[in-house]
Amino acid sequence: MLSLKHIAISSFNENVAYLHKDCDTYKVDDIKNITKIEVHGGAAPVFAFLEVVDDASIVAPNELGLNTEAFSRLNLPEGANVTLSMAGLPPSAGVLQRKIAGNILSSSEYNAVIKDIVARRYSNMDIASFLVASGSFMTATEVLSLTEALIGDEVIKWDNENIVVDHHCLGGVPGNKTDIIITAIVAAYGLPMPKTAARSLTSCAGVADTFAVLANVDASEAKLKQLIKDNRGAIVDYNSLPIAKAGKIVSSVERALGLTQQQHIVASILSIKLAAGVTHLVLDIPVGPSSRIKSTSEAMRIRKLVEYVGDMLSLEIDAVITDGSEPIGNGVGAVLEARDVMKVLRNKEDAPQDLLEKSLFLAGRILEFDPRLRGGQGYHVAKEILTSGRALEAINRMIYAQGKAPQAQLGHLTRDIVSAKAGVVESIDNQRINKIGVLAGASQYPGAGLDLLKKVGDKVEPGEALYRIHSVSTHDFAFANSFVDGNNGYEIDTRK
Amino acid sequence: MLSLKHIAISSFNENVAYLHKDCDTYKVDDIKNITKIEVHGGAAPVFAFLEVVDDASIVAPNELGLNTEAFSRLNLPEGANVTLSMAGLPPSAGVLQRKIAGNILSSSEYNAVIKDIVARRYSNMDIASFLVASGSFMTATEVLSLTEALIGDEVIKWDNENIVVDHHCLGGVPGNKTDIIITAIVAAYGLPMPKTAARSLTSCAGVADTFAVLANVDASEAKLKQLIKDNRGAIVDYNSLPIAKAGKIVSSVERALGLTQQQHIVASILSIKLAAGVTHLVLDIPVGPSSRIKSTSEAMRIRKLVEYVGDMLSLEIDAVITDGSEPIGNGVGAVLEARDVMKVLRNKEDAPQDLLEKSLFLAGRILEFDPRLRGGQGYHVAKEILTSGRALEAINRMIYAQGKAPQAQLGHLTRDIVSAKAGVVESIDNQRINKIGVLAGASQYPGAGLDLLKKVGDKVEPGEALYRIHSVSTHDFAFANSFVDGNNGYEIDTRK
């Protein structure tokens, strides 16, 4: 018997147990390997990784320490008596081995894996193994099974709505924050759009990061329902909602590993939308040589896959293949992107036209989910809502209702990246621009990023700025600067 | 600037950094994901996973805590000034992504991955991803590249020896501890055999676990050299030697995940033997329906692979395909296996004949590496050494030189598993027996395991014991008992 102690350490995903090296009850001095234990005493055993402590002020030899995650999960008071055992394999361990060996898994096997992940019986290593193994080969039926498993038990119900819409972009194009403009237009039109947005995974800023520059993006389920009831639109960080628990754990591992496997992304996105109670989804699939999806045939395979999964799970999906050949808008990074979005909504003359047109096009597709709207009218209705100022009114209502964010500062460390030669911008490398932005600190600081002063087709003179780097930390700034000197991501055609 | 503090927590593989949630210098309250940082101030930056502390007695807001692994790696005194940055991707991150995407990697790419692993720039998740991705597909050239990368910089040199021999078994057969008998015979003959043994990975006991029942298995390089000089033979835990650093980290992850991918095992074993300075190796490849290697054709593929890698790296390999259809000997688990081994070496009448014969056969193959020995004489010389008592003298010298271990106790919780019917034992399921032994606690406690009282071909009466379970912990005992009731691993042919 050991006495339970809460060690106020948060390890994000993982349960950790701490034993003193001279533990009274369990022999720990010869443990030389990663060891998973089960802690008994609560309603259900809790799995945790063992760490060994040589400081009695942290845990004494008669105590078992649990980090914040494990302690809250065990749900016993400090001082409670607990016992330990070596953890057996999680129930789905055999399923994981089968996937590592290259087998096709059944629906109930995916359920077993996801159940173990939610119960934290999988370590981050186990999750990484599952992701890499399943990422290398999955049938469409497996993607369906994984999507269903990821939806889980918590689904938001919209009792008084026939249609609940959303929009999602598969990403890979810097600056592409159409979502906020679309939500404003759709909300102004009157369709309910609870936009579940994500923080950046590998990009400079996710939609949730960009909207967080303008408003509070955290919401409970009750608050989200009230926001939609009052304003028809809301943009919230899906991490703050009690949905898609397994997806959040999995995506934390994906983020740490930089994994972006299409079949997982499809399963993850569709499960979040289904758990959020969405009935109609426009999915933007941008294609370009330096985008995530490089060819129309690849985009078409993804479209077929999402249509199949959507059909099986009664989610109406309009998957649209768009031009992802260069960044959208001028800003890359949350503060700069929010600036572009507000310029469009305010009908400013210098608003980025590509962001404006793409937003109208996609908003129009969503509006056409409304059976009352005549086919082909979506774009025109969206444009009327934007130019009349109704979209701006809608976003202001949404910001006010969600809670206005304090004014965010643009990074004050700046450098203009200039063209060495005269000519016309022939291409901009999305991946390079994203990486420079990430190095400049954009995925950490909203105020960091790149302001693209020239886009494809623009003329440049020698010494003229192509874009401006903004950083918040000197370390990031130096990192981005040394990286950009090798290749700034722009190709200039000097013959024109 | 933060003040460095050592947090006396050992996390086995992983570097961990602790920051207070109200850290003076770095904003940590909005960190919601697994985050890797770099700690600057020492000779080289140290990578660590960030954990957030809400207890100033562990770390204060002006301090940075490092766990034992990270602290010793940074090599600065407590109170030193350190700074942090977000960790960039390790240099070989792109290589890892290429392997996840299914590509063939070059020799320099494997070197880059292994270099990052040794520098602890890979997390356990990263290592798991690498193992699963590379395990699904590797060419023979890639196995060679991985082997070379795993050898690393530290290689033991045997200046006065022309031949340095070793033996290794690919495993999957419970109780198969020929290694100790072989080492005694070979040492008595006079060939140098520094047997680098491993702790159990997924089995009930590794060779190092079993020999640890008899002697101290830890040795420095200098001590190993002295042991071989004095006695010609030694059996040491390779983890105690300063070789194959990357392999140890990788194998800790493999153990935690239960991964047993043949190509990794081949690269791992051959790299350890080469780093130990071995020139001639007998490799035992047991084949059986419930062994790790299930068919002769699979065994032949492995033989070809190890011969290719051995040839390229000038390691003479005699790969022998053996019968792995049932456990070898009677004991499964360190104490019981050590008992069997000593019975053979003492020429006891009740010594397990299968263990005896297999040991003589394999020892004979090693002796024939000696150019002075006439072909075909190895087995007979080995038998003469064993029956004359010279092998027993050799093992006793080895035990004395390495340090005699205190008497180990057999687990006092026992249960006889009896046959329900009369007949003849038709087959014994290796994997089932291994699993029952592991559940009984054998991989944790030397005294736990199974004592097989009947082997294939033995007659049994109803109610007669097939084997006896030994456990040390009541929890393990209950676990093994409930598992064994479903299927005890024995097939009885009632027609005979």
Q: In terms of per-residue confidence, which ranges of chain A show pLDDT below 50 for 5 or more consecutive residues?
A: none
Largest sheet of chain A: 6 strands, mixed, barrel
Q: So, CATH architecture of the largest domain in chain A?
A: 3-Layer(aba) Sandwich
Shape of chain A: globular
What is the C-level CATH assignment of the largest domain in chain A? Alpha Beta
Q: What share of residues are in beta strands of chain A?
A: 15-25%
CATH topology (level 3) name of the largest domain in chain A: Pyrimidine Nucleoside Phosphorylase, Chain A, domain 2
Largest interface, by Cβ-Cβ below 8 angstroms: which chains and how many residues each? A-B, 59 and 60 residues
Q: In angstroms, what separates the terminal alpha carbons of chain A? A: 80 Å
